[in-house]
Predict the 3D structure of the following.
Amino acid sequence: MAPRSAASPFSDIESRRDGRARRITRARGPAPGTAAALGVLIVGGLLWTFAPDSGSRGETLARFVEWTPALVHGFALNVLISVGAVAIGSILGLAIGALGLAPSLPGRIARFWVQAFRNAPWLVLVYFTTYVFPFEFTVFGKTLPFPDWLKVTLALALPASANIAEVFRGAVASIPTTQWEAAGSLAFSRAQILRHIVLPQCVRRMLPPWMNVYAIITMGTALSSLVGIHDLIDTAQVASSTVARSSFTVLTYLATLVIFFAYCYPISLFTHWLEKRIANP
């Protein structure tokens, strides 16, 4: 009969440690985002319950259902503005970030751009682009409109470009200097090192903060309602003034908050997952 193998004391310690970690994880409760969502829903439900109303709650819900397609259409415009702003900001930001690495005059101008638009109030930029740019252009005898939502897109692209340029600078700075020195010893130019060695590594490191910039820009699109853009916030204001019920107003703005949260929170979760995946490949 074969003898039993003695259990290692280290395996017992590891098993107890794993069990303790699982108990701590269970004791932590729900994720912060889930707790925040539940808190918003509970507070919103209480406000909606105790809000004065001239009609029945069922009629308020029916009116809200009627306005739901308009709210969704308004939020689609928020998404369009955010995607356009981040797309333009990414192109500008990568170019400005690359220029900012140079010690020459263009590099100093690029660094000034980053500092200026990272610290500029977004609302001021929105008003600036709305009233400075014309409402239409004449090109080859044809009049082309310049819509306000495109002006807001350009306004939000400015801080997006500054933040993405800083993300690019941080990603490049995270590459060990020994890689630059080793590539330089092989007669690579600085541009070749940046293009063939540094940039492929920077893409993975830039993706999580880039997604974080996109989520912030998406929430910043709420400022577009202040210049007459019919986005989600403006649609909620129109619906609230049209129905003119306190309970409907509470329900509409609660839905507005939930829509923004439901769109941005998964992006935040995916960003955290990417950061852990990149840190522990």
User: Anything to note?
Assistant: Strands lie at 136-139, 142-145. The chain has a mean pLDDT of 81.
